[in-house]
Design goal:
- The protein is of the alpha+beta class.
- It has a single domain (17-78), classed as Rubrerythrin, domain 2, CATH 2.20.28.
- It has four helices and three strands.
- The chain has a three-stranded antiparallel sheet with strand order 2-1-3.
- A hairpin with a 5-residue loop joins strand 1 (18-24) and strand 2.
- The radius of gyration is 13 Å and the shape is globular.
Amino acid sequence: MSYISTNRTIGECIKYGYRITAYCNGCHHNVPLDLPALAEKLGADHGAMHDDLVPKLRCVECGGKNIGIILTHQSAEREGMAKFPKY
């Protein structure tokens, strides 16, 4: 059975154990976002979808704004399914 994520806010992602990783399409740098810090800064009710977060992100390595986000659940990380390539 598959489920569609309903974690539309930062607070819901924290509550239900999701992680959001920012990925730079320019230099391939990736980093997990600090969701509690984002909730503190933007509010727990702030959207966690691509269009809500990406305009606020910039790559710390190259300064690029061509950012994508990847949503994973902590259970996927425990099972080794959430590995990202290191370039």
